[in-house]
Design goal:
Length: 143
Amino acid sequence: MEMELAVDPKAQAVIDSYKEFWAFLHAKQGVDGISIFTLKEAAIALGISPSGVSKKLKRLLTLKAIGKIASGSYRIIGNENDLFRPFTTMAMIFMLLREEPEIFQHYEIQAQKLNVSLKEIQIAWGYSHYFNGSPYADIEIRN
């Protein structure tokens, strides 16, 4: 019997969009291993805006899943698992906070304890806030 994991629809949409982008990068890959394309070309192929393409490229560069050769040319240096790193980091953070809730707002300590970069912690928290809303949404700010 195969077990099926329930995934939040927002999370699934993000995962699917990165998988589609990953497939696009592979489809544009030449014999030299370099994917060459314009933002406009990628935007049309993926049905997103050029700024959306740019954001995905920046995220994959941050995750070290791709490397930038020059404007419009990238080398795939990671694998598809790199696309899921923010989600696995998010799960590790939540497990850590179950044991040590006092470090909730201490990203540097979380990074140190999980042996990941501060940037990875920030990315994971960004996804968490996107999917679940900010924990500070109900706080009223007064001047």
